[in-house]
């Protein structure tokens, strides 16, 4: 169990037996996470489970995973299962094993959350069956293009094995959401993952890909995993990717997903090589457009309020519903981070500070 839980490091989660997902209502859901096996026929150049690498191998049968999941679930330690795997021969065979786990759990009355990370190249008929049992399922894109993908995942084809599966997943999710009588089960949105720093693709390219996936595949949640070199892999001598880069990409993805921004809106915040710097991208965007500020909290549109650092979607909607606003204390009660928002807003024509002084300008 320990070996297989640690083996999911490269599947969106940290190294422990429990990871977290979030429901449509924002509620955090604890999941037991495991691989079926860390023995893999794939040769992904960054992965500790790649074929031929000398490491401790372990496997659990579908029946064993079902038993463990039930044990945790009955103790209220988890609310569901996150299941991935090394490639067991091929994608079809792997998906059949994953499907068996989900089928066993549901047939035994399990009502918890099931998240499946399927393999590139999983056949459509198996995705259709998985959709009948799982709340959420998806395939990892890992990178931004066919050229990059062929370099780090040589056993699969980016367009047919990954992008086609993202399209099928989108269609199956939409179908499930329209079905009557799906038992009230949560249907999770399309998601995928990018390995950050395994190759030299700039953040600009990653953000553009995320934006495209949101439009084309209705991607809701991109995950980012910082690359760490693994001994006895082709990339063992490559440098680690700093954790802050992962964090800044997450912040940027939230601005795309929840604030209505597009990839081109970030063109002014990259360095000369197309990489984000270690600073809040929303603050950088605001500072790069001083002509937009200050905004009057009592007359600004929702979109204008969303551009203000310290004001998120919840706070912006509360402001619009509660106007007129007469003080900063009112904004604080609505969840606004005043220390960040102050240089960019005015209340009844008054400002507490201006942007130039906030930025240290004379």
Automatic annotation (TrEMBL):
Signal peptide: none
Key words, A-Z: Iron, Iron-sulfur, Metal-binding, S-adenosyl-L-methionine
GO MF annotation: an example: iron-sulfur cluster binding
Spans traversing the lipid bilayer: none
InterPro entries: Aldolase_TIM, DNA_rSAM_put, rSAM, rSAM_sf, RuvA_2-like
Domain of life: Archaea
Annotated Gene3D superfamilies: Aldolase class I, Photosystem II 12 kDa extrinsic protein
UniProt key word Metal-binding: yes
All copies of domain Radical SAM core, residue ranges: 21-267
Name of this chain's protein: Radical SAM protein
Record organism: Methanolobus zinderi
Classification lineage: Archaea, Methanobacteriati, Methanobacteriota, Stenosarchaea group, Methanomicrobia
């Amino acid at each position: 169990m320990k070996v297989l839980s640690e083996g999911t490091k490269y599947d969106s989660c940290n190294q422990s037996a429990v990871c977290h997902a979030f429901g449509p209502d924002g509620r955090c859901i604890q999941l037991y996470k495991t691989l079926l096996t860390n023995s893999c026929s794939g040769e992904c150049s960054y992965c500790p489970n790649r074929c031929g690498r000398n490491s401790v191998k372990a496997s659990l049968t579908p029946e064993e995973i079902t038993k463990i999941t039930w044990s945790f679930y009955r103790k209220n330690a988890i609310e569901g299962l996150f299941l991935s795997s090394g490639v067991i021969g091929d994608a079809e065979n792997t998906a059949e094993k994953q499907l068996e786990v989900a089928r066993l759990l549901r047939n035994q009355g399990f009502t918890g959350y099931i998240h499946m990370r399927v393999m590139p190249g999983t056949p459509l008929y198996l995705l259709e069956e998985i959709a009948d049992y799982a709340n959420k399922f998806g395939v990892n894109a890992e990178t931004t293009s066919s050229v990059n993908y062929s370099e780090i995942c040589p056993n699969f084809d980016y367009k047919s094995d990954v992008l086609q599966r993202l399209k099928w997943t989108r269609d199956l999710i939409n179908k499930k959401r329209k079905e009557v009588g799906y038992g009230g089960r949560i249907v999770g949105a399309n998601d995928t993952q990018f390995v950050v720093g395994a190759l030299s693709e700039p953040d600009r390219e990653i953000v553009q890909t995320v934006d495209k996936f949101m439009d084309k595949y209705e991607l809701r949640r991109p995950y980012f995993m910082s690359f760490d070199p693994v001994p006895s892999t082709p990339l063992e001598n490559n440098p680690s990717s700093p954790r802050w880069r992962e964090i800044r990409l997450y912040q940027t993805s939230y601005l795309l997903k929840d604030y209505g921004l597009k990839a081109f809106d970030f063109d002014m915040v990259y360095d000369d090589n197309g990489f984000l710097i270690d600073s809040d991208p929303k603050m950088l965007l605001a500072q790069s457009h001083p002509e937009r500020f200050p905004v009057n909290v009592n007359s600004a549109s929702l979109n204008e309020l969303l551009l203000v650092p310290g004001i998120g979607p919840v706070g912006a909607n509360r402001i619009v519903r509660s106007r007129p606003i007469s003080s900063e204390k009112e904004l604080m009660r609505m969840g606004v981070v005043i220390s960040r928002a102050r240089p960019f807003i005015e209340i009844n024509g008054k400002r507490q500070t201006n942007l130039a002084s906030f930025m240290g300008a004379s």
